[in-house]
Design a protein that fits this description.
It contains 13 helices and 8 strands. By secondary structure, it is an alpha/beta fold. The structure holds nicotinamide-adenine-dinucleotide. Belongs to the iron-containing alcohol dehydrogenase family. InterPro entries: ADH_Fe/GldA, ADH_Fe_C, Alcohol_dehydrogenase_Fe, MAR.
């Protein structure tokens, strides 16, 4: 129990269950929005079209151009479609890329957002938006970015490929890992993160056995909600900084990058805050939080080395430079040499502490 804390309260309405997609129309009505533009990636366009049909007169159409890291040129095209349609809301159906597009539209137009997440990336509960323009990714936090309503429908995650199921779960666990030691954490967030660790530990191996297992999908999506809430209400540190460096400057895929770095960043900070990270060690076993996560990653077939996302050993020097360009809070103080050593381990792919 912490001596003192501030809990800001949650502002996003959450609808969770199986078949909840059918409630999207009611949720739009609840927001007082008669018309909405449905958003998706090209890959999920058919699902978005089906949703638009189900929404009937409430849907003004589908914009299926969402892309990873929210390119500003895509946002501009989507805003043109949104403004022409006279809609007052967006319905974002998909993973973090689609949610990001919805947030970018909302920030610039004041649109209400109903988000229907289909991965575990966890953008839906947050006030964070990362965008790319001219090859540079910038991130900002603003209350106007946070979605009004999130509908979690377990049925929509049944089609999530096993590879993305695993890396997306590791991406979610990374939010909880940094929430456990965040200076602005509270008991509510800590409880959610503890529960999420247990749910992922049980749920992910069950999904590898049977990707369409409804109970295991429900467990994993519930855990994703907990981790997204953690990301949305506390500050992140070294792990998210490093993931941002690789995604933003080396164009590595988002979920895999988080998955690879997680055991190493956890082990690095565990030296300074072993008690804060004890819930991870307890959930994943292996005698330590970093070691336990590495063992889990190996068990569920998650990538373990930066080589697997195309990073060369020579890239590690530039990544270390970028990681220490600006100072930010982290439970364990570090110099460039410490980061370079951490990255070497993440590139070698060896078990932390070995
Ligand atoms: P994604 O949204 O790019 O999805 C990956 C691919 O999987 C896409 O083609 C998508 O259409 C497909 N897909 C998604 N759900 C599916 C399903 N259930 N079945 C079949 N295919 C499905 O990937 P992501 O990892 O969810 O999101 C990554 C993006 O989200 C990055 O741009 C990242 O920066 C952003 N993000 C932002 C925040 C935030 O708070 N701002 C948090 C997490 C992630």
């Amino acid at each position: 129990m912490m001596d003192s804390f501030v809990f800001p309260g949650m502002t996003t309405r959450v609808v969770f269950g199986s078949g909840t997609l059918a409630q999207a129309g009611d949720e739009l009505d609840r927001l007082g929005q008669g018309k909405a533009l449905v958003l998706s990636t090209p890959h999920q366009e058919a699902d978005a079209q089906k949703l638009a049909e189900a929404l009937g007169g409430r849907a003004v159409g589908v914009f299926a151009g969402a892309a990873m890291h929210t390119p500003v040129e895509v946002t501009e095209k989507a805003i043109a479609a949104f403004e022409k349609s006279g809609a007052g809301a967006v319905v974002s159906l998909g993973g973090g890329s689609t949610t990001g597009l919805g947030k970018a539209i909302a920030l610039r137009t004041g649109a209400d957002q109903v988000v229907i997440p289909t991965t575990y990336a966890g953008s839906e509960m947050t006030d964070i938006l990362g965008e790319t323009a001219d090859g540079r990714k910038t991130t900002r936090r603003d209350a106007a970015i946070r979605p009004e309503t999130v509908i979690y429908d377990v049925d929509l995650t049944l089609t999530l490929p096993v590879g993305l199921t695993v890396t997306s779960a590791m991406n979610a666990i990374a939010h909880a890992m940094e929430a456990f030691y965040a200076p602005d954490r509270s008991p509510v967030i800590e409880l959610m993160c503890r529960d999420a660790m247990q749910a992922f530990k049980a749920g992910i191996p069950a999904l590898i056995e049977d990707p369409r297992s409804q109970p295991a999908r429900a467990r994993a999506l519930y855990a994703a909600w907990c981790c997204s809430t953690a990301l949305g209400y506390v500050s992140m540190a070294l792990h998210h900084k490093l993931a941002h460096v690789f995604g933003g400057s080396f164009d590595t895929p988002h979920a895999e990058t988080h998955a690879i770095l997680l055991p190493y960043t956890t082990a690095f900070n565990e030296v300074a805050v072993p008690d804060a990270l004890a819930p991870i060690a307890e959930a994943f076993g292996g005698g330590s939080a970093g070691g336990g996560l590495w063992d889990f990653a190996r068990e569920v077939g998650s990538p373990l080395s930066l080589k697997e996302v195309g990073i060369t050993e020579a890239d590690l020097d530039r990544a270390a430079d970028l990681a220490v360009e600006n100072r930010y809070s982290n439970p364990r103080p570090f110099e460039r040499a410490d980061i370079r050593a951490l990255l070497q381990q993440a590139w070698d792919g060896t078990r932390p502490g070995a």
